[in-house]
Amino acid sequence: MKNIKKLIKYIGVIIILVLIIALFSPTWTPHIKGDNSISALEQVEINGSSHEIMIRGNDKDNPVIIFVHGGPGCPEIPYADKYQDLLETNFTVVNYDQRASGKSYHFLEDYSNLSSDLLVEDLLAMTDYISERLGKEKVILIGHSYGTYIAMQAAYKAPEKYEAYIGIGQMSDTTESEIDSLNYSINQAQNVGNTDDVLYLQGLTEKIKNGDTFTPRNYVMKYGGASRLIDNPDGDNIGILLSSEYNLLDVIRYNYGLSYSQKTLLKEVLKNPLPTIVTKLKLPCYFIMGKYDYMTSSNAAKKYFDMIEANKKEFITFEQSAHYPQFEEKEKFYEWMCDTFIK
What we know:
46% of the residues lie in helices and 17% in strands. It is α/β, with parallel strands linked by helices. An eight-stranded mixed beta sheet has the order 1-2-4-3-5-6-8-10, sandwiched between helices. A two-stranded parallel sheet has the order 7-9.
């Protein structure tokens, strides 16, 4: 009995030690070989708040991309290297965790002023920092999902900072997009005979049509409207923990930040959808949409695209993808980026 008690005690100590190591283990981004390469993961002060940034590329002289993640509150640093490895050969790619998201969530910081306007200000300040650090007059701005809500406003406010705006999983009229998501999920549930799902989703119809709520994302994901060629990477706590860029403390921060950001910011995109904010851009504008995207409806995005005034604009459909075309068809995305921006 004494030996069993000792064994239990030792096991408990080992578990505590493992948790401490997991909580505070060092984080890094894999090294890229080359005299002019860059592979940095660090905290920088941007617009009065400490932001985590990751900068990766084979040659710092290459064109620079600033990538604005979605969610709100879903940083892509933990899985970015899985889809941007090709991009890093011809571009320098900057990812950052937005204020109150992921490694940029700080438990003692006051986020009572968190808003989309503040995140736009952060992005503009981040752009100035990156442009100066990497010696670029302009950078390429890419927004993904909710990131398009932030990035498109930044492109509208300061077009002189950016070579082009690229919206992947572009947000548009939120209510119209959510109705598309709802109808898709209901149709897919009917096709496989999931009556309970059909009845539940049909019960949300009036709220969604009134712009009061979103189609539950777990149903959109369940029926293939989020990802098709990959597992959905956002919110994958095990995958995030297994990345070199995040430790257990960062995973905890990720989940706190996700909850806070979504509760605080999502109501803005229902109340003030992008077509009421931006209808004209003074720089090249590209929408890249997965054919099967029902997280941000491709059909609604096309209607928004058609109303935008821009000297140059292009709507590109990735035929095999849903909400992550840059990941699901990364070779095609890389080729398009090179064809468009590598002179």
